[in-house]
Amino acid sequence: MKKNTWFLTLLITVLLLTAGGVLLWRTGFFQAATSLEGLQAYIETFSPYSHLVFFLIQLASVVLAPIPSNLTALAGALLFGTLPAFLLTWAAVVVGSALVFQLARCLGQAFVDRFVSQALSDRYLDIIRRKRDVFLAMAFLFPFVPDDILCILAGLTEISFPRFLVMVILFRPWGLLVASAVGGSVVNIPLWGMALLGLGGLAIFLLGMKYGDRLEEALLRRFRHK
Predict the structure, then answer these.
(1) Do residues 112 and 104 make contact, with C-beta atoms less than 8 angstroms apart?
(2) How far, rounded to the nearest angstrom, does the alpha carbon of residue 19 sit from its chain's CA centroid?
(3) What is the spatial distance between Cα 63 and Cα 77, in angstroms, rounded to a whole number?
């Protein structure tokens, strides 16, 4: 990318992100985000455009991390119901993930450094490059990994955009679906159930990180010989 184009793209991006952050702050979003009731009230104030505002908030949750998209999905489900909140959140997360990936891919390390701390970059970038699909798929499935940041860092790797987009579409929605279902009262998971789900998810994640390469190779060998 030419230097002038790079600078212009970066400038526009920074201005848009800054404007979005200021708008959220001036309209009281960050104060409202301290509770579910506050989030509901905040979104409702924009009626009849509440659905659009909810979508933009979910988009900002990816681009302007750290806005907890699972929490806002829960609030959206209380307002709109499970399916509308999930579909809006899923669409926003896919768009936001693709956006930050492409910005990192086009603008490089200089862009990433403005949004990802050196500590997080050191922790995750090398493992994304080595584990690639296995790590991203497992990380997207579970809420304790900063998946929005992983989408930015993935733009610095050799993963192709179509491949990345497929992983986002397939693996990012499940935590959002659970949050939307809980918010919409479709499922009511007790505290002990959440704890068991968390422990099970952690076990699967660790096993995937340890044996994922072997499983992937075994599958590839099996399909090659068919």
Answers:
(1) yes
(2) 21
(3) 21
Evaluate whether 100 touches 151 at the Cβ level (below 8 Å).
Answer: yes
**Which amino acid, residue 35?**
S
In angstroms, rounded to a whole number, what is the distance separating the alpha carbons of residues 8 and 220?
43
Give the up-direction half-sphere exposure of residue 33: CA atoms within 13 A in the CB hemisphere: 18
Cα–Cα distance for residue pair 196/201, rounded to 1 Å: 8
Average pLDDT, the chain: 75
- Show Cβ contacts of residue 1 under 8 Å, excluding neighbours closer than 6 positions: 9, 106, 107
**Whole-number Å distance between alpha carbons of 63 and 76:** 19
| pLDDT (tens digit per residue) in 151-206 | 889 999 888 899 999 989 988 887 777 766 665 544 455 556 555 655 665 666 56
Output b/e per residue, 102-134; b: 16+ Cβ within 10 A.
ebbbebeeebbeebbeeeebeebbebbeebbbb
Q: Measured between alpha carbons, how far is 100 from 54 in angstroms, rounded to an integer?
A: 19
Decide: 88 and 58 in contact? Cβ < 8 Å.
Answer: yes
Q: Where are the alpha helices (DSSP H) in the chain?
A: 3-26, 29-32, 36-44, 50-63, 69-80, 82-107, 109-113, 118-131, 133-141, 147-154, 161-171, 173-183, 191-224
Kindly give, in sequence order, each residue whose CB lies less than 8 Å from that of residue 128, ignoring residues fewer than 6 positions away. Answer: 135, 136, 150, 153, 154, 157, 159
Range with the largest mean pLDDT of 3-12, 56-65, 95-104, 202-211: 95-104
65 secondary structure, DSSP code = -
